[in-house]
User: What shape does this take?
Amino acid sequence: MLAQQYGPLQGKMLQIMDENGVILQTDLVPDRQDEAWLESYMTMLKTRSADNKALQLQRQGRMLTYAPNTGQEAAQVGSAAAMAEGDWLVPAFRELGAWLTRGVDLERVYLYWYGNELGSKFADGVRVLPISVPIGSQFQHAVGIAMASNIKGEDDVTVAYIGDGGTSIGDFSEALNFAGVFNAPVVFIIQNNQYAISVSRQKQTKAETLVQKAVAAGIPGILVDGNDLMAMYAATKEAIDRARDGGGPTLIEAYTYRLGAHTTSDDPTKYREDEEVEKWRAKDPVKRMKAYLIAKGIWSEEEDVRLIEQYDEEALEIFRKVEATGETELEDIFKYHFAEMPEHLQEQYDEYVQYLKEVE
Amino acid sequence: MAVMNLISTINHTLDQELERDQRVVVFGEDVGLEGGVFRATVGLQKKYGEKRVFDTPLAESAIVGTAVGMAINGLRPVAEIRFSGFMYPAYNQIVSHVARMRNRTRGRLNLPMVIRMPHGGGIKALEHHSESLDTLLGHIPGLKVVTPSTPYDAKGLLLSAIRDEDPVIFLEPSKIYRAFKQEVPEEDYTIPLGKAKILQQGTDVTVVSWGAYVHEVLKAGQLLAEEGISLEIIDLRTISPIDRETIIESVQKTGRFVVVHEAAKSFGPGAELMALVNEGAFLYLEAPPTRIAGFDVTIPIPRGEHHYFMDAKRIAHGIRRVANY
Assistant: This one.
């Protein structure tokens, strides 16, 4: 069991592929078709294209705010790819790769960052919760969803995400504890990208690793190279299988790095050195997987360039649509608070509509 | 005298008070190394060291809860919550302990502490970054709640807050952090908590507001002056306790009362203000006291926020109806 070998107190990190895409541990490579790896890689590329495009548009003043994912694609796509059809995904706010893997439309994601609540309204049947801005609060929901699966006798598993900063907030510990007590089929994934805005991981906790927090909750944990798609997939798959078989929750620490800013409102040069960023750039999860696929003979540099171009164009196309149609309808601000709009709210709405008519 | 905006005034004031009083400590998420997400504490860690100006782990409840302990043990903590919308995990500490320690211990343990929070909206931010918590905080017995609308007031009020023997919530309107500059005296001065300020004398309608909206109300006053409607504009400055005297005296003079606030209308601070006007100036009223306030909705994210946050024109529209009642 990987979670024993690379458990919280083992002082080891699961890595299957090295920084150049060379397999280090052949016996640990998950049983998965080449096409499936290629598909995951393509989702990573798509995530990066969407990220780059969003940043570019934000700089042009067309996108409002954006929380970039660059550098964390393997942590997100690798984990989400291990989920089965009916499984639930409970994100924090920086999980684009996971969303795309699980069928969330990029258009919705862009619409959200464009500043319209409709961006949180995913298509029916997509078992993905909306972005949760209050740090860590979503972990409780994940446990509740998983408890409900148990209570209803269904075997769906819930996968939830949090950042390194989120592990400091009470909700995190409460959720782990509940999950343990109720043996909830949930997989907690910490995307340890080393910074909570400006506060470094070292200032966040005196614990040597974040995954050690599993120990006190009495649940399995595993430390994983978050930039290694295969390792992320393997660790998450094992945890999901265990949860589905009644083995309860697991905590996964994906050791990764946010190559960009916290959000576009932030300037990371104020709190970290370029040298550190460059060191992590060498560990780029996308570059690594690309090298692997090319070496395997199932991908080429030319195809890569073409696909990036295609994704860039698609992202721009999607954004243009958002830009053309993404204004919030006045009625939307009022009509979704309750199943039926109460009288006082209807009055406030009517009065305002009347005002708009008068001043026009 | 230096010319400063609101955010640099907060920085300057914290700097002076850290210098003057060794008991003052300043902390919160991103407060130390980075100097705050809004740059309120830039340079302070460098100047006063990591013991007095520091980053905390991401945990609002612990930020406020440890401030309680520090205040009990002789410090004057000035804690920062990154945005008021992230206050909720700390609400338990605020309601259960911050507001109650003095009363609980019958005066033995008081909490000279300040919780600073960027507050209010209209800054095109995402969910939870634009909240108006006036009522949630003002309703709690044992808390003082202060909000400045100018750099000058910010310095005087913040110094009073830090030197107060009781806990003060200091709400900083993020919309006007950098909106304008003003002369702020270098020397030490305080503005008493619980005192409103009459910004403009007038005869027809008393209009009370606070925070960022004060500036829209002043503009509305100019629009209405052109129509011959004279507003008496009052900046509340302290949301709790309310300066009843200034408001009632004004309404007794004008006979009309309007309160303008960002927070949702129902159960909002306007309801309290109208109640005290009814209690103190009922027989002077020539029109129903009126609230011009936020809709009873979750504050929309940017593409809808212009419907929620009012400009001077819309405020003037509401006041005009009261003036012509």
